[in-house]
Amino acid sequence: MQKILVTGGAGYIGSHAVVELQQAGYQPVIVDNFSNSQESALVGIESILGTAVPIYRIDCADEAALRGVFQAEKDIAGVIHFAAFKAVGESVAKPLAYYQNNLGSLLALLAVMPEFGVDKLVFSSSCTVYGIPDALPVTEATPTKKATSPYGATKQMAEDILTDVAAAGGPRTILLRYFNPIGAHESAKIGELPLGVPNNLVPFITQTAAGIREKLTVYGTDYDTPDGSCIRDYIHVVDLAKAHVVAVRRLLDGPAADRVETFNVGTGRGNTVLEVVRTFEEVSGQKLNVLLGPRRPGDVPAIYADATKAAEVLGFKTETSLADSLASSWKWQLSLSE
After folding, report:
1. Does CATH place domain 3-183+235-266 in 3.10.180.10?
2. Tens digit of each residue's pLDDT (9 = 90 or more) over 267-295
3. How many CB atoms lie within 10 A of CB 249?
4. With a threshold of 0.85, does the pTM exceed it?
């Protein structure tokens, strides 16, 4: 089994990727400091897989600690780098924390990898690198524009760093530009588990439906969209996890390609926030207390993917509908109160 180091592997996307990697015949090794994840994710992963996954509880930005992981594991074949802070609104309020954490962890990883001959990297990027696009859907050739948040800026900078390092002989890299992950594993044993107040839409929806939160605020209802709310491309987290397996396989076994390849990972469809709310109400049978609020700093009015390149080059397409994704989120939320 080829070992794949998964930084942030106990997080929302990371935990699902760990499951898919193991089931695809790889041996994931988790690095996570649990600053934005919970130990219960490890229990869920083990329950699904029937086996424990190696875990190192360290800060990925700690170069010495990271070096110790590579020394202990010895034969790591590649890395998936998830570890990062990821909330747009929070990044506007705490920009320095985002620059320190998101860039510091990447720089530490890039310093340590070559010491151990590890030269394959899948990077967790974001559609925020496109800023406010001039046209939709966005393709990988869509120009990146000034980011609307420090979070987006860290992803732009990280992509630039990885491109420069690869050109200088650094790791062959696949940049996966995610759109909006939602949903949970079909077993309801892992899912999105935010610490404190959620920063993403769907946990707010499910927590409101479960009575944990009094109301759901929709930020901005005067955008130039069909119903005035923001448009996003919502991809099921398991579909997104599978994209990482495909990317790892391409790096390890696929044809020689550019030192850096970029792929949008989305459904190719846009849905408004209010559409998501209505769809959730339909699949769950729960009526939500919705408050229409002002615009939120850092939000892009509308963005969704052209997913053609991922389909043609990686052979990757999403499989799960918005309704099924939201139903899995609700099943996960209900499991948390059992």
Report:
1. no
2. 999 999 999 999 999 999 999 999 999 99
3. 17
4. yes
